Amino acid sequence: MSAPEPAAVLLERFSAHLSGELGRSPHTVRGYLADLTSLVEALDARGRTPADLDVPLVRAWLSSARAAGASRSTIARRVAAVRALTRYLHREGVLATDPGPRLSTPRQQRGLPSVLDEEQAATALEGPTPTTPVELRRHAVVELLYATGIRVAELCALDTADIDRSRDTVRVLGKGDKERTVPVGAPALDALDAWTARGRPEFVSATPVGALFLGARGGRLGVRQAREDVHAHLRAAGVDSGPHGLRHSAATHLLNGGADLRSVQEFLGHSSPRSTQIYTHVSVERLRSAYQQAHPRA
């Protein structure tokens, strides 16, 4: 019977499998190999090899990482790396069975999203009157993000034809190519009118495109530039937030104003109500704060 391959050789072949067969990015491959090198070192300290991998050995390694202060996201990444390795080793005949499916991934703790209060939102939107084409675009981008709660990538994908002025709505293509229709308020529509009348024509190139927002070369506005537009506009207003903060704020302000959770779920384009429920926690925290300040027996 031939001797088992050295761990370093196994990892080298596994690296080629990740990048070649699975098409994983260089960043992912580096991260997996760093984690698995740590695993191999832990196995070696116990006089074991990758051919001995089982659930107790992996759990002991993960427990050591937790004790050393590793975050939940780090543990989750390590579990993903081990699952990929054990699946590969089982396929190659190194492991008789694959212990990977029996390894549980720690649930990620979801923090409360950072949101603006209504006064901060008003400050962010009621700044100086925009005059230059770039200022008009920035103002329209911020107004539309807050008015609709759409993602910045969804905003960049909008075409002029997606704005329905007869119904004051915008047609959005969200994750999974799911289309939804979102209402738009008058301030955002006014900002869009100013942009399309006095800003957008300045960006139109010799080969015009149907994109609602255009970049410096006349093509569709990129996500990176849209983010920069938002941060620049909000910084000028003295507000520390970004595109996702505007989305969080829009959802929270809807709930605070009496909208039901199902409506907010459709507004945000969430496929599951679980993704939307985090916003109820924000409202509850504010209610608790108000209660503690105002109730005589708080």
Topology (elements, then pairings):
Elements: H1 7-21, H2 26-45, H3 55-67, H4 72-91, H5 118-125, H6 133-148, H7 152-156, E1 163-164, E2 169-173, E3 179-183, H8 186-199, H9 223-236, H10 243-256, H11 261-268, H12 273-276, H13 278-294
Antiparallel strand pairs: 1-2, 2-3
Helix pairs in contact: 1-2, 2-4, 3-4, 6-8, 6-9, 6-10, 10-11, 10-13
Overall shape:
elongated
- The end-to-end span amounts to 75 Å
Spans of 5+ residues with little confidence (pLDDT < 50)? none
Percentage of β-strand residues: under 5%
- Number of helical segments with 4 or more residues: 13
Structural class: mainly alpha
Biggest sheet statistics: 3 strands, antiparallel
Mean pLDDT: 86
Helix content: 55-70%
Give the strand order, joined by hyphens, for the main sheet: 1-2-3
Cα gyration radius (Å) = 26 Å
Counted beta strands:
3
| Secondary-structure element series | HHHHHHHEEEHHHHHH
Describe the structure.
- This protein has 298 residues and is mainly alpha-helical.
- It is 56% helix and 4% strand.
- The termini are far apart.
Q: What is the compact description of this entry?
A:
This protein is mainly alpha-helical and 298 residues long.
Distinctive features:
single chain, 298 residues, mainly alpha, three-stranded antiparallel β-sheet, 56% helix, elongated
